[in-house]
Design brief:
50% helix; single chain; eight-stranded mixed beta sheet; 14 helices; alpha+beta; 8 strands; 290 residues; Jelly Rolls
């Protein structure tokens, strides 16, 4: 069993726009409860603002508290689910990369720190003043989405851009901007993450990725070390372990089959590597999570 990958068309209103969806959060979870009541991933970018409610939001096995004034971001492929303690309210929107990037040819989604790298936290907390401002902007985008007005799509993408700029300013308030700016090193890291996502099953050595990027392995390690204080091997290993966690928890395959899917020589070796990275054997992880 594979993790469900949801697409935008599954959430559409009666008068949809291509590649975009906006809703109040309470209506969203009520209307789509059969789609989102279990862990799933998306093939689009997602942003949600909470104005009320508490609970837990799990993203790729990291748990984050849900509180008023908290905003979450998800990139395509990330697995997540919600668990609410009190009734949530707020706004949610998602869109394809093309919907945004084709309108802003000189300014892509990856310019925003929360979408630039998987290493950057997928969450930001707003002050009461920031929350008041952004709540109005989310509401305006939702209102525009619900009305078939002239140039509606252009208005929405400009509102998204405005929201993303305000969220970037909030996101970077207490973060070293030098580490977040889209420098040459940052661009290499972004390309590396993309390559790892596409090839981690077959290619587990830094040399392959350095060759794909047309740089030396030494320089690639320097880039990763300078930007996120890790090694290339660590990034590859982390991606393998993340996929292992997803398969262990969300599939019904036996653990030996999962080891085979992840290109390990045998289950014993897979179990040893997994325990060295997580402190638990695959079986212990599955039991504890469930």
């Amino acid at each position: 069993m594979q993790i469900p990958i949801l697409n935008i068309s599954q959430f559409k209103e009666s008068t949809p726009l291509n590649e975009v969806y906006i809703n109040s959060f309470s209506k969203h979870i009520q209307r789509n409860k059969d789609l989102i009541n279990k862990p799933h991933s998306h093939n689009f970018y997602l942003c949600v603002l909470f104005t009320k409610g508490t609970g837990i939001h799990e993203i790729d096995f990291d748990s984050y508290a849900i509180n008023p004034g908290r905003v979450f971001f998800l990139k395509p492929g990330q697995t997540h689910f919600w668990k609410f303690k009190t009734q949530p309210e707020g706004y949610i929107f998602f869109h394809s990369q093309e919907f945004y990037d084709l309108k802003f040819l000189n300014h892509t989604l990856h310019s925003f720190p929360f979408y630039y790298s998987y290493q950057n936290p997928p969450v930001v907390d707003l002050t009461s003043q920031q929350l008041s401002l952004l709540q109005l902007k989310f509401k305006e985008a939702y209102t525009e989405y619900m009305q078939p007005n002239l140039l509606r799509e252009l208005k929405i993408v400009n509102l998204f851009s405005d929201i993303y700029i305000e969220l970037t300013r909030a996101y970077t308030t207490n973060i070293n901007l030098e580490k977040l700016k889209t420098s040459q090193y940052s661009q290499i890291l972004e390309k590396l993450e993309h390559l790892i996502n596409n090839h981690f099953l077959k290619e587990k050595l830094p040399k392959f990725y350095a060759q794909e990027l047309n740089i030396t392995t030494k320089h690639l390690n320097r880039v990763v070390q300078k930007t996120i204080n890790k090694t290339t091997s660590q990034l590859i290993s982390e991606r393998v372990i993340l996929e292992a966690k997803r398969l262990i928890v969300h599939s019904h395959d036996n653990l030996a089959t999962i080891a085979y899917q992840l290109e390990f020589s045998d289950y014993a070796y897979f179990s040893k590597v997994f325990k060295s990275k997580t402190g638990l054997t695959p079986l212990e992880f599955r039991k504890n999570y469930n």
